[in-house]
Design brief:
- This protein is an all-alpha fold.
- It has one domain.
- The protein has 14 helices and no strands.
- The longest helix has 42 residues.
Length: 424
């Protein structure tokens, strides 16, 4: 399946996901204002951290190894190797989910207070403790389908999860407020995980015996490398956003944090369609590309396409920014219109860094990948704290743009050096 067909199917799935997400945000913005939007974003970051700890941290590696196994000429050998990685990933998830189950159950009150400055959300974390394993299975199923290039089935499962979140989230927010929306974030992938178990059992991809602990040293080592590398991304993405939001709340309160959250949601919109499509296409294709010359051609094609499309989307969003803000949020959020331009300018640079970092991740270059993620995660936080204190919301836009300029220069410089020193 070529990049255009993959992009089309991914665009459909991502569009539904975006619509579902913005319907939830729109309801929160209209009914409860910027504070609810900020708290919703705060929980989304925590949820991402926990799901990455449970399974998402090795999903990229799982896609890579399934793709490589699928290319083995000996079909019987390929199936056996794929089964080993699926079982290994389930074992990994059982262990990590059990640890998280105990931690969330025991410390739910403290976690609730730390995240929301209130213990009223304790039930959310207790519910998440029971759901985390099924969410892991959902991630594993998605990785399996992606690795085998069964894109239609993968897209269908992701659409089911998004539609379920949209329906449940809308109903629960209307009747139960913010806490109802937070429950919907957990319920949707949990049900999708149950569907994933049913699907893999039905297709004889797994059996009940796969849910027994079975540790194969090589399999766990392969997955563990990606687990370790992806844990670092928590510092440069959701965890950094979590602490930036906490800092905003400490100075200006939840309403200011909600305005910043809306800026971040809109800037994500300019990149999410591209990153989702490329994740589906780029990871399996690059995993199968052995020669440096093949990798260079693939990188050029992906970077040109991604940057070009991101520029077009960002420009359109800038021209329609007032309309988008009113459509997706409410008139209380119009104050962010001028700040948004800095995030949109940074979009194409963000794509360059993302593609190069993903290349390093797939090719298992842990030192370079971890160094880039750690350094620029730290600088984003530092720039945001310093510039927000001096310039307010505008300062957060300056910080994001400056960080992306620096990270894209460093990532591009390393990629040029790496390709010049490696030959077929």
């Amino acid at each position: 399946m070529n990049i255009f067909r993959v992009s089309f199917l991914s665009a459909i799935e991502t569009s539904i996901k975006l619509v579902a997400g913005f319907i939830i945000i729109k309801l929160l913005a209209i009914l409860y204002g910027p504070e609810a939007v900020a708290k919703f974003g705060q929980f989304q970051n925590v949820f991402t951290v926990l799901t990455v700890l449970a399974s998402g941290s090795f999903i990229t590696g799982l896609v890579k190894y399934i793709s490589e196994s699928y290319s083995i000429v000996d079909t019987k050998k390929a199936r056996k190797k794929i089964a080993s990685y699926i079982q290994g990933s389930i074992t990994f998830s059982i262990i990590t989910s059990t640890i998280l189950f105990l931690a969330l159950g025991i410390f739910s009150s403290k976690i609730s207070f730390y995240v929301f400055s209130s213990q009223n959300f304790r039930s959310i974390f207790i519910f998440l403790a029971f759901a985390i394993f099924f969410i892991s299975i959902y991630q594993i199923t998605i990785a399996y389908l992606n690795g085998l290039r069964r894109i239609k089935e993968m897209v269908s499962l992701k659409i089911f999860s998004s539609l379920l979140m949209m329906v449940l989230g809308s109903i629960s927010i209307y009747f139960y407020g913010l806490i109802g929306g937070l429950f919907a974030i957990i319920i949707a992938p949990t049900f999708a995980g149950l569907i994933g178990i049913w699907f893999m059992l039905k297709k004889s991809l797994i059996s009940i015996s796969f849910f027994k602990l079975k540790i194969e040293r090589q399999i766990q080592s392969d997955l563990g490398i990606y687990w370790g590398m992806n844990i670092i991304t928590l510092i440069s993405s959701p965890l950094v956003l979590f602490y930036i939001r906490r800092y905003i709340v400490s100075l200006e309160g939840w309403e200011a944090a909600g305005l910043w959250e809306s800026i971040w949601k809109l800037s994500d919109l300019s990149c999410l369609l591209i990153t989702t499509a490329l994740s589906v296409y780029f990871i399996p294709m690059l995993s199968r590309a052995r020669k440096i010359s093949e990798q260079v051609l693939l990188l050029k094609k992906v970077i040109v396409l991604a940057v070009g499309v991101t520029i077009i989307i960002s420009l359109l969003m800038f021209l329609l920014r007032d309309f988008l803000i009113l459509s997706l949020f409410s008139d209380k959020f119009l104050i962010i219109a001028d700040v948004l331009k800095y995030q949109l300018i940074a979009g194409p640079l963000r794509m360059i860094t993302w593609i190069i970092s993903l290349y390093m991740l797939i090719k298992a270059k842990p030192i370079i990948f971890i160094s880039i993620e750690l350094f620029f995660g730290s600088t984003l936080y530092i720039f945001s704290v310093v510039l927000f204190k001096q310039f307010g919301l505008d300062g957060l836009g300056y910080a994001f743009l400056l960080n992306n300029i620096l990270s894209s220069i460093v990532a591009s410089g390393y990629l040029i050096y790496f390709l010049r020193t490696h030959h077929d």
